[in-house]
Amino acid sequence: MKILTCSNSCPRWEAGKISPRSPGGLVPMVIALLDQHGGDWIFTLPPDRPGTPETVRIGDDVVLHPIEPGEELRRQHYDEVSIRLILGLLHYLHDTSEQPVFDDRMRAAWAGYEEVNRRYAKRLVEVSGGGDDELVLLNDPHLMLVPEFFAAERPGRRRLAYFLGTPWCEPDYFSLIPRPIRVRLLTSLLRCDVVGFHASRWADAFLRCCARELPGAVIDGRTVHHAGHRTDLVATPFPLDTGTIDKMVAEPPMEKWRGRLAQAARGRRIMLRADRLDLWKNLPRGFRAYEMLLERRPELAAECWFAAVVTTPSRATGRHLAYAEATEEVVRRINERFAVDGTEAVSLVRPAADDDSRHCVLAGLSMSDAAVVNSTYDGLNLFAKEAAYVLPDNASLLISENAGVLENLSRFAVPVDPFDLAATSEAMEAALTGPGRSSREERRSMLRGETVSGWLEEVFRL
Questions:
Q1: Closest Cα to residue 159, out of 65, 39, 63?
Q2: Is residue 189 included in any domain, yes or no?
């Protein structure tokens, strides 16, 4: 068996080894698959690796194929279409009073999106031998036209799967983009044998979009028949790499971070969250909910500490920067109101570039009484799975009703409405002052049962 995979996300590579550029998400999963099966990985070359050859061999079995779009295509494909338009759509981020706008600038950007997808498909055709032992795995909303272009060159090709790590929006919201584009995206994805999501609700939303936008489609359960092709939908979340976590918790950086965090906590109970500063992570509302808790019970500022480990997106937009400023402003306000003897009531923890942010997160979780995920809409949220694995016995895990991971961890979690600050505040109070609701061993046993091989079998129906 051999894996051929495409993603916008990319790894680091050095001295014949590949590793994630950041913790969590797609890249560690792809690395694990290639370690087991070998194959080819096509991805967008990061701007910090100029001059990289078109192919990079890693050991005997893995070949990397960086795609260099150039800065103008990168801006059109990544910034304008993939991030602002498509991720904004799938995460319900558009302010519909003024967004999105399909003018000449957006049409030019869409042409750039097409061109990058065409280049990916061309490279995929070049590396594909067409053998029965090949599994083609496409990823990321950045590449939703690759199936269309690839199928035109490899008609009838089987074992082609597309996995979307994002949510999928409902038909009314999907119709914010012009009909020719939304029909084309759906039709392209239905060239695949399998389309996968982290949660059933995202798969079901995709089916409803197909039912509305493709009159000729026949939907039978989680199968779509369209244009003479059958596509199965699957809902299977990424597994947590528990083996790697078990190794990390015994490494020296864990003790370093435990010491730093213990010094900041000063003996107080800890509630932790960890997020990249993406617009859907909902940090300002989460801190505002905690502020409401301190307004009711100001004494908890001396007993509890709410910490957020945060990282910045690699290509932050103006909207991201404004969102970061809003987050920092609410943190400043809370500390001005509730800091005790100069000790912060809430904190943003930003590991330096030379620090391991994942060790920081795991160290914080091992010391915490509660963890919070209150994203507005989230495809999965791997931090929640890390929390379920690492949190001490009887700690509380609060998870947004709109995070895909809630389906996976429902019996261990307290669901929270990410838009209802009063209810979130009450859930935080219960988490910090009452007993937890789940056994650490039960959580760990379930997560250890999830494997990369099992995920691959579910996606490809092996």
A1: 39
A2: yes
What is the C-alpha to C-alpha distance for residues 439 and 8, in angstroms, rounded to an integer? 38
- Classify residue 53: in a domain, yes or no: yes
Sign of the alpha-carbon dihedral angle for 387, 253, 17, 83 = positive
Look-up of token digits 């370093």 = 256
Bridge partner list, 219:
224
Q: Is residue 456 part of a domain?
A: no
Give yes or no: residues 330 and 427 share one domain: yes
Residue with tokens 């915490």: 368
Which tokens sit at 5?
A: 């995979």
Judgement on whether residues 230 and 322 belong to the same structural domain of the protein: no
Closest CA to 137 of 63, 201, 192: 192
Domain ranges, residue 269:
242-448
Q: Assess whether pLDDT exceeds 70 at residue 353.
A: no
- Note the pLDDT of residue 85: 97
CATH code: domain of residue 337: 3.40.50.2000
- Specify whether 217 is located in the same domain as 261: no
Note whether 158 and 272 are same-domain residues.
no
Give pTM, 2 decimals. 0.95
DSSP 67-123: E---HHHHIIIIIIIIIIIIIHHHTT---TTT----SHHHHHHHHHHHHHHHHHHHH
Q: Are residues 185 and 289 in the same domain?
A: no
Same domain, 335 and 407: yes
Q: Above pLDDT 90, what percent of the chain? A: 84
- Locate tokens 């910490």: which residue? 307
- For 458, the token pair is 């579910």
C-alpha atoms less than 13 angstroms from C-alpha of 286 in its C-beta half-sphere: 29
Q: What are phi and psi of 276, to 5 degrees?
A: -75, 150
Ramachandran category for residue 64: left, alpha or beta (phi over 0 → left; psi -120 to 50 → alpha): beta
Q: Same domain for 263 and 400?
A: yes
Residues 27 and 159 in one domain: yes
- 422 CB-contact burial (10 Å; exposed 0-12 / middle 13-18 / buried 19+): exposed
Q: What are phi and psi of 27, to 5 degrees?
A: -60, -45
- pLDDT value of position 129: 84
User: What's the pLDDT at 295?
Assistant: 98
Write phi, then psi, for 214 (nearest 5 degrees): -120, 85
CA distances from 83 to 93, 351, 373, 452 (A): 11, 25, 22, 28
Residues ≥6 apart with Cβ < 8 Å to 163: 137, 138, 139, 195, 196, 197, 459
The model's pLDDT over 188-206, given as tens digits with 9 standing for 90+, comes to 999 999 999 999 999 999 9
